[in-house]
């Protein structure tokens, strides 16, 4: 069937259909039949280097850039959840639990009398509340360590500067060991008071702590420096009841565990993508060097050591850009859908390998013109042709006989009436595009169900309208069901449907072939169709196509 497809549509269209079939098999997970098409590999000129292998790798690199940028933005957003905004715990989603405990500092002994200020609390204050109570108070003489006050008797509360290294728990623990009943931290002059916590590997301090504004702290230090005796009270009050607090804490533990897992997964994915990005960039640099070697015929096959002057074509591996001569590629890959690059042992999909002709070798279009007598061997249609068609032109002569017969049939149907419309079915979308181009070259306007959804919907809307093309090209693999096209009453099946997973004639499902054809016929032979429906099946005489139709 692949051989008949090659003769019917030409090498380029046949190879495109084979690739389309392999992509379908990959989606189905049917790896055993991928890459088994017995078709010649399309060979490219070196001038197409950038538009084939390099473009594919560059597109992959661009996709990596986009994905990395998205993950970095997600990682930054995740990290922002653990940063405080303007010292307000409510603006920090993952530290908002700190706002559930309110802290208040009262200072007595200043010239203006009692001074009170709402302070920012520490993470461990909630752990110090007595069981069953929602408030606690620590009071004592205020001692400013910044001015060297050395009072070791009586209950005292230490006024300390903000921890330079951010380790408030260690500073508070040291103050507790020195006999302090509580700690009041002074915010820096360039920041607002903010909640603070302790690392998970630390033991929470045993005394409460809070942070006040730099302005209040400066006033307290000045009063202590003048010898004033100040009494400080630090009030801690829980804003939720015990049951709600327990539920909230349990939820926070789960949230922190989930957040840590997300952060680790983001880090692993970013690391893998950045490594892949570096490999891709190295490969593109190596590709430029390999292109230069191929242009100068200095590249050598690493298996047989043939140079460009000895090998007619070289196969370029995707991603790594190592090369093999064409014959070594066939030996290395065989009929397998994938194989290992002999140089770096990276897995290579046969579909992704690109073959380039060695410089100086003859291209297909440069080959000598076939002698006139060889053209006579091409099958010809002996029926009377419409007068409007020039069947003696060189373009007509090189057409495969099946395409010639299709063009003649369409002309005959058009000549039989202006209302006649035709559906033309071929199995693969690549053949739909190929037929669309061929028919256009021979003066037959047609609509094709290919491309994006809006393009296919536009073709369906136009088909059947006066003044629009009267031929609609469809893929039986994609469009054999679900469409009502009663405007047509002629249906052409260009070739029998072949089971995509088949590897030999015995594995072709004739029942599946007939089922697809019945579905295709059902597009036109349905209510409100009132005219007879004509079905034309094309097959190559004496080939496996004929055998499928007669059931052998």
**Structural class per helix/strand content?**
alpha/beta
The overall strand count is 18
Rg to the nearest angstrom? 40 Å
Please give the count of helices: 16
Shape designation: elongated
Distance between the termini: 14 Å
* β-sheet strand percentage: 15-25%
The profile of the biggest β sheet is: 7 strands, mixed, barrel
Query: How confident overall, as mean pLDDT?
Result: 77
Descriptive report:
There is one protein chain. This protein is of the alpha/beta class and 552 residues long. The protein has helices at residues 2-9, 11-28, 50-80, 125-128, 168-177, 214-225, 242-295, 326-333, 372-375, 394-397, 401-416, 429-441, 453-462, 476-479, 510-521, 544-550, and strands at 43-44, 101-110, 113-121, 135-144, 156-161, 180-186, 209-212, 231-238, 313-316, 323-325, 338-340, 347-349, 354-357, 422-426, 447-448, 471-475, 490-493, 534-537. It has a 7-stranded mixed β-barrel. Strands 15-16-14-17-18 form a 5-stranded parallel sheet, sandwiched between helices. The longest helix is centred in the middle third of the chain and has 54 residues, at 242-295. The two termini are 14 Å apart. Mean pLDDT is 77; it is low at 84-94 and 364-388.
Brief descriptors of the model:
alpha/beta; 18 strands; 39% helix; five-stranded parallel β-sheet; 552 residues; seven-stranded mixed beta barrel
Give the SSE layout.
Blueprint: H1 2-9, H2 11-28, E1 43-44, H3 50-80, E2 101-110, E3 113-121, H4 125-128, E4 135-144, E5 156-161, H5 168-177, E6 180-186, E7 209-212, H6 214-225, E8 231-238, H7 242-295, E9 313-316, E10 323-325, H8 326-333, E11 338-340, E12 347-349, E13 354-357, H9 372-375, H10 394-397, H11 401-416, E14 422-426, H12 429-441, E15 447-448, H13 453-462, E16 471-475, H14 476-479, E17 490-493, H15 510-521, E18 534-537, H16 544-550
Parallel strand pairs: 1-13, 4-5, 5-6, 6-7, 14-16, 14-17, 15-16, 17-18
Antiparallel strand pairs: 2-3, 2-8, 3-7, 4-8, 9-10, 9-13, 11-12
Helix pairs in contact: 1-2, 2-12, 3-7
């Amino acid at each position: 069937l692949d051989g008949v497809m090659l003769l019917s549509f030409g090498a380029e269209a046949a190879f495109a259909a084979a690739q389309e079939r392999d992509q379908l098999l990959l989606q189905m997970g049917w790896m055993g039949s991928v890459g088994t098409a017995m078709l010649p590999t399309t060979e490219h000129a070196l001038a197409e280097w950038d538009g084939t292998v390099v473009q594919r790798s560059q597109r992959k690199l661009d996709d990596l850039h986009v994905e990395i940028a998205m993950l970095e933005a997600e990682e930054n957003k995740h990290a922002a959840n653990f940063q405080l905004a303007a010292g307000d715990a409510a603006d920090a989603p993952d530290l908002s639990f700190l706002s559930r405990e309110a802290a208040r500092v009262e200072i007595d002994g200043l010239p203006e009398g009692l001074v009170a200020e709402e302070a920012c609390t520490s993470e461990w204050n909630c752990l110090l509340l007595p069981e069953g109570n929602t408030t606690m108070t620590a009071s004592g003489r205020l001692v400013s360590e910044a001015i060297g006050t050395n009072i070791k008797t009586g209950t005292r509360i230490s006024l300390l500067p903000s921890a330079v290294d951010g380790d408030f728990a260690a500073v508070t623990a040291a103050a507790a060991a020195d006999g302090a009943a509580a700690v009041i931290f002074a915010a820096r002059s360039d920041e607002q008071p903010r909640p603070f916590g302790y690392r998970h590997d630390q033991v929470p301090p045993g005394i409460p702590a809070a942070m006040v504004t730099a302005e209040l702290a400066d006033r307290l230090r000045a009063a202590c420096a003048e010898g004033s005796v100040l009494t400080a009270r630090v009030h801690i009050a829980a804003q939720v009841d015990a049951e709600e607090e327990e539920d909230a804490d349990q939820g926070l533990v789960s949230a922190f565990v989930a957040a840590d897992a997300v952060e680790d997964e983001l880090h692993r994915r970013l690391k893998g993508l950045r490594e892949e990005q570096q490999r891709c960039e190295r490969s593109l640099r190596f590709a430029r060097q390999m292109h230069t070697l191929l242009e100068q015929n200095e590249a050598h096959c690493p298996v047989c050591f043939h140079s460009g002057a000895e090998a007619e074509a070289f196969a370029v591996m995707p991603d790594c850009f190592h090369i093999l001569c064409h014959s070594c590629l066939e030996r290395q890959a065989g009929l397998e859908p994938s194989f290992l690059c002999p140089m770096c042992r990276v897995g290579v999909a046969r579909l992704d390998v690109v073959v380039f002709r060695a410089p100086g070798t003859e291209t297909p279009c440069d080959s000598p013109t076939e002698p006139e007598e060889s053209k006579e061997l091409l099958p010809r249609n002996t029926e009377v042709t419409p007068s409007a068609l020039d069947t003696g032109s060189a373009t007509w002569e090189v057409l495969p006989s099946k395409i010639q017969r299709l063009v003649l049939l369409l002309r005959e149907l058009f000549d039989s009436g202006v209302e006649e419309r035709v559906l033309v079915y071929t199995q693969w979308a690549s053949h739909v595009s190929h037929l669309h181009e061929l028919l256009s070259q021979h003066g037959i306007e047609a609509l094709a169900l290919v491309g994006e959804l809006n393009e296919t919907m536009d073709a369906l809307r136009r088909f059947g309208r006066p003044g629009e093309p009267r031929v609609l090209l469809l893929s039986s693999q994609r469009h054999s069901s679900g469409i009502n096209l009663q405007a047509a009453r002629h249906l052409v099946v260009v070739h029998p449907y072949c089971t995509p997973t088949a590897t030999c004639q015995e594995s072709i499902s004739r029942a599946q072939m007939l089922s697809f054809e019945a579905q295709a016929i059902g597009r036109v032979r349905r209510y409100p169709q009132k005219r007879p429906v004509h079905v034309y099946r094309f097959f190559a005489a004496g080939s496996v196509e004929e055998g499928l139709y007669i059931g052998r």
